[in-house]
Amino acid sequence: HGLFTVDFFNLAALSILTVLAAPHFLRFTRSNLSLFDTAVVISVIPLIITQCLTAFFSDTYGDAYHTAAFYTRFLGYLFPLVGLLASNISIGISKHYTFEQLIDLQMLLENKSKELERENKERSLIQKRLQQSRDFSQAVLETAAEAVIIIDRFGRIEFFNSAAENIFLYSKKEIVGRKVNNLMPLPHDEKHDQYIENFLQNSNNKNMGLGREVFGIKKDGTEFPLQLSISSIIEEDQPKFIGILTDITETVKYREKLKQQASQLELSNKIKDEFVSTVSHELRTPLSSIIGYV
Q1: Do residues 250 and 153 touch, judged by C-beta distance below 8 A?
Q2: CA angle at 158 for the pair 152 and 160, rounded to the nearest 5°
Q3: Whether 178 contacts 148, CB under 8 Å
Q4: Do residues 160 and 143 make contact, with C-beta atoms less than 8 angstroms apart?
Q5: 185 preceded by a cis bond (ω within 30 of 0)
Q6: Which of 26, 197, 210, 243 could tie 149 with a disulfide, CB 3.0–4.6 Å?
Q7: According to the model, what pLDDT value does residue 206 have?
Q8: Would the CA dihedral through 151, 156, 158, 164 be positive or negative?
Q9: Measured CA angle at 216 (ends 214, 217), to 5 deg
Q10: Measured between alpha carbons, how far is residue 7 from residues 17, 38, 48, 72 in Å?
Q11: What are the start-end ranges of the H helices in 152-240?
């Protein structure tokens, strides 16, 4: 062999070794390897040096390059053995340490398990109480004498009690989920969504209306007077609106009757006053004549 004479056998071995080693070096730079894996990857370096010395520099058997190649090859074989030994020692120490900490770790896990179990029981109890409170509130609203309607921020009906069914002639199945606009005559049905937006923009408002007189519309299209009170609540970070409604049809009729009676009474008083004035005038005229004659 000469300095520039290539040993094709060693060159082929060098090429194969380089191709096989490349993925290991990439893996070495991207992940955490054990001591043995690290030693195997490092051992590729002296083996590549060995092939380079043998293929490109060594002229004869036993020269300096050949001797250097022998030692580098020895290092290449030695690294995996040292890595294997170090890895076994590390694993033994780790196992010994883990065994000593096993009882403490088990106690810690048991304490965490008990703590989680206690938190789950408390959470379940809170949820149960919340559900009981909701059921109680719904039962109170359902049996209320007044009509109660609850809507969301989009005007969709979420709750419609029995009294509301009797007033509007809709069943819960028919009306829940629909817009509350269906219960309003023109033009309020078209403006109701804007009413809600105006209220939401003014966060200081708590009551949209207390005891207002409005008109509703029944399922059969009949319009009738209502007394309406509205308040807002926050449930699960979402605004809700509660409307309490009273059918005041009879009240309005009675009020109109009183107005008519008052008008009739006023007219009667006016007629009486006119009659008294006329009679008084007629009586004063002959008396004046008699007094003048005497």
Answers
A1: no
A2: 130
A3: no
A4: no
A5: no
A6: 243
A7: 52
A8: positive
A9: 160
A10: 15, 30, 14, 18
A11: 162-168, 172-175, 188-201
Q: Which of 252, 199, 251 is nearest to 230 (CA)?
A: 199
pLDDT digits over 164-180, tens only?
Answer: 999 999 999 999 999 99
Cross-strand bridge partners of residue 230: 209, 243
> Residues 6 or more apart from 239 whose CB is under 8 A from it?
152, 153, 200, 232, 233
- Tens of pLDDT, residues 177-219: 999 989 988 776 567 777 777 777 775 555 556 778 889 999 9
Sheet of strand 207-217: strand arrangement: 157-160, 147-152, 238-247, 223-235, 207-217
Measuring CA to CA, which residue among 211, 214, 176 is closest to residue 192? Answer: 214
Start-to-end CA span in the chain (Å):
181
Contacts of 182 (CB under 8 A, 6+ apart): 175, 189, 217
Q: Residues 244, 146: contact at Cβ < 8 Å?
A: yes
> Distance between CA atoms of 57 and 69, rounded to whole angstroms?
10
Task: Report CA dihedral (164, 167, 169, 170) to the nearest 10 degrees.
Answer: -20
Q: Residue 61: its pLDDT value, please?
A: 63
Please state whether beta strands 238-247 and 223-235 pair in parallel, antiparallel, or not at all (unpaired): antiparallel
Per DSSP, 196 falls in state H
Could you tell me which residues come within 8 angstroms of residue 84 by beta carbon, excluding any fewer than 6 positions away?
36, 39
CB 55 within 8 A of CB 1: no
